[in-house]
Each structure stands twice: as structure tokens, then as C-alpha cells.
Amino acid sequence: MSDRVLAAIDSSQFSEGVCDYAAWAAKALDAPLSFIHTVDNHAQVAEPDLTGNLGLGTREHLLEKLSNIEEQHAKVSRERGRLLLDAAKVRAISAGIADPQCLQRNGTLVETLVENEKDVRLLVVGKRGETAHQASGHLGSNLERVVREMHRPILMVPKQFTQPHNVMMAFDGSKTARKGVEMLAKSPLFEGATCHVVIVGAETAENRSQLTWALETLREAGHTAEGAIRAGEVEETLRTYKQEHNIDMLVMGAYGHSRIRQLLVGSTTTTMLRKAQLPVLILR
After folding, report:
1. CA-CA distances (angstroms) from residue 149 to 9, 38, 75, 111?
2. In the chain, domain spans
3. Does this model's pTM top 0.90?
4. Tens-place pLDDT, residues 11-65
5. Is residue 141 within 8 Å of residue 65, measured between CB atoms?
6. Residue partners of 7: CB distance under 8 A and separation at least 6
7. 3-class DSSP state for residue 6?
8. CATH fourth-level superfamily of 4-42+77-157
9. Whole-angstrom Cα distance, residue 56 to residue 34?
């Protein structure tokens, strides 16, 4: 099970996208695919203050009922998870995956993913989980924690799958970003796709040298590569380039120079990712 694609699913609207992108990635990487569903038994019903309540029965009786309710809820959650995993397996098989594996674990999502990351080549997750408000513009809190704590590439996906043909990498010339270009060049995920490298900054000799290196690295690996240096505010500049070139996947490093870094981690997740309707591959 080493170097597998691991897809985290729940009952959110993003799970079909997770299944389809995970199947696409597993085939492209020639890697085994595993689906994982977590049942969080950590959340407990708060013990009520029954002082002064009349006609509600004894404290012990009520606590016993609460315990029974929690137990029933856990059973329902596990069964729902098994049904979700079964459906994901059927969907993956129909997409051409020979033997997808299904895992169900107790615990929080973040802790479970971190515990299982040692043999993961790529983690696929939805933008928001089932507990997030569907109308919210924010990324799910679990995803933000996963980005901070995982040490594997993470593919954040939208609700519907689209085959990537134009991939854009926000590049800042940092050591992490250069490593990201090298990972992108070596990855079979983007075979046949055009790779766009964008530096947001001034047209300087240093930036031009960095862009030339990135494009040559990609081209030497057999990729079609285009690039640009554009001055402006990071979010707006990248969004404009994305629209002009029909970008259908964004590749970014989770850490880099401050302006790029703030797109993914920081006190506030920025508008571009909150409203992203395209998949985002986050490199570590």
C-alpha cells in the first residue's frame, strides 16, 4: 500500500469530485487507490445541569438515555460511512480502478490522515466537509488544519471532475517553489497538459532568470510550458491569468515567500482559494 493515493470522503457535496479526481490521479500515477472515512467519536454530548429540574426522572436515568443515544448515533455514523465507502468503490471501479481499498477509522479527520500519511503519495480532499455550511465562502476548518499538518501533496477538489489541460503554478523563486517545479516536471499527473508558470512581481533580471529556469526544467522533462512575469496584487493577477488561459488546475506550495504563502496559510484564507471552482494541488 506504499505510495498510494488516499481519498478522504464523507457525505458532503464534494465527495463525488473527490472520488473522480482520486481515480484520475491513481491511474495517472499508476498507484493504488484507497478511500478513507472517519467516524469522530470524540464529540460528546455535554452533561446537562439537572439541578432543580422536576418531572424529568433521575439524573442517572437521563445520563443512561444520553449514553444510549450516543451509542446509536455512532452505529448510524459507522453504517453511513460503510455505505459511502461502498459507493466510492463502485464509482472508482467504473472509472477503471482495479482494486480500490476502503478504510474506516475512528477519530478526528486530521489526526487520522496524519497517522496514515507515511505511505501516501497524494491526498485528495474536498474543499469543505459535511459539517461545513454549504453556503460558506470559507475553506473547511479541517482542510486548513490538514494543509498545516500534513507533509504530503494535497489535492483540494471541487464538486465536479474536469480533466486538467492547463495547469498554473504560482512561482516565487523560493527553495520550496523550485522544489515544486521539479516535482511538477517529474509527475506523470500532467502528461499532455500545458504547464503555466507565473511570477507575480516586477520584470527584473532575477525574476526573468527564475522563470527561465522553471520553464527549462519543465520542457526538459517533456512538458509544454509557458510563463509570465506580471506586476500587481497576487490574487487579482493570478485570477486574471487563470481566466485568460483557461486554467483548470492551480499548483501551489504551502510555504514560500510571504505573499504567496498567505494564499494558503495565515490568519485568513484569501478570496481566491475560498471561491476557487478549480482543483488546487498543494505541494509540500
Report:
1. 19, 17, 29, 9
2. 4-42+77-157, 166-278
3. no
4. 888 889 999 999 999 999 999 999 999 887 655 444 445 444 545 556 666 666 6
5. no
6. 18, 19, 21, 22, 33, 34, 35, 36, 88, 123, 124, 125
7. strand
8. HUPs (3.40.50.620)
9. 47
